[in-house]
Amino acid sequence: AQSVTQLDSQVPVFEEAPVELRCNYSSSVSVYLFWYVQYPNQGLQLLLKYLSGSTLVKGINGFEAEFNKSQTSFHLRKPSVHISDTAEYFCAVSSTAGGGNKLTFGTGTQLKVEL
Amino acid sequence: NAGVTQTPKFRVLKTGQSMTLLCAQDMNHEYMYWYRQDPGMGLRLIHYSVGEGTTAKGEVPDGYNVSRLKKQNFLLGLESAAPSQTSVYFCASSFGTSNIQYFGAGTRLSVL
């Protein structure tokens, strides 16, 4: 079984400040890791993914994340946020064990960017 | 290219009524999924399908049924709706082992 923990349910930050959204996972097998973003009243969009290779992954809109296997973490970072980054962010993990590429999601972090 | 389309976008049901949510994808994806999203709980997998004619249970399958008669469509049925099924439902699809899921815009369902 696999699980994802997003400890911060809400993160307020001022515009142009840096931000880090934390994600920790647990799994008994190798995993793939994802960050999705959900803007109000919309579906989820893929922000970035880690499948293999370099542990530093760059995504859309200036976001990046680092896979840390020893700490079982996949924290999301952005050096300077914009008002338009206000959204809910979900970390997710999947494995191909058992077929179906099923995703297990964290409970989400609401990022609120203020002027 | 529409991607993943969910129908309807909103629906209000009375307890005990039935309904079917339709998900259609035009990306020729093998895998399709139904999730529900509730405040503070993230997205939870209801059922999924790894190909036409196949379905499997996810994390929270009780009270729901699904069918995948055509590769591009994945239907989610509620036979007797309950207030606990008030939620936002998302459909997603993925291509084989790419592990990247593409999501529809969601269906907001209220059961009174």
Q: What keywords describe this structure?
A:
heterodimer; A: mainly beta; four-stranded antiparallel sheet; B: 112 residues; mainly beta; seven-stranded mixed sheet; 0% helix
Oligomeric state of shown chains: heterodimer
Percentage of residues in strands of chain A: over 45%
- From the N-terminal CA to the C-terminal CA of chain B, the straight-line distance is 36 Å
The mean pLDDT of chain B is: 93
Strand content of chain B: over 45%
Average predicted local confidence, pLDDT of chain A: 91
Main sheet attributes: strand count, strand direction, barrel closure of chain A: 6 strands, mixed
Shape assignment of chain A = globular
Structural class of chain A: mainly beta
Give Rg of chain B in angstroms: 13 Å
Structure explained in plain terms:
- The complex is a heterodimer of chains A (115) and B (112).
- Chain A is mainly β and 115 residues long.
- Helix content of chain A is 0%, strand content 51%.
- Chain A is globular and about 45 Å long.
- The mean pLDDT of chain B is 93.
- In chain B, the strands form two sheets. In chain B, strands 2, 4, 5, 6, 9, 10 and 11 form a seven-stranded mixed β-sheet that branches.
- The N and C termini of chain B lie far apart (36 Å).
- The A-B interface holds A 4, 9, 32, 34, 36, 42-46, 49, 51, 90, 94, 96, 99-108 and B 4, 31, 33, 35, 40-45, 48, 50, 56, 58, 90, 92, 94, 97-106.
Question: What's the arrangement of secondary structure elements?
Answer:
The complex is a heterodimer of chains A (115) and B (112).
Chain A: E1 3-5, E2 10-14, E3 19-21, E4 24-26, E5 32-38, E6 44-50, E7 56-58, E8 64-68, E9 73-78, E10 87-94, E11 103-105, E12 109-114
Parallel strand pairs in A: 2-12
Antiparallel strand pairs in A: 1-4, 3-9, 5-6, 5-10, 7-8, 8-9, 10-11, 10-12
Chain B: E1 4-7, E2 10-13, E3 19-25, E4 31-38, E5 42-49, E6 56-57, E7 65-67, E8 73-78, E9 87-94, E10 102-103, E11 107-111
Parallel strand pairs in B: 2-11
Antiparallel strand pairs in B: 1-3, 3-8, 4-5, 4-9, 5-6, 7-8, 9-10, 9-11
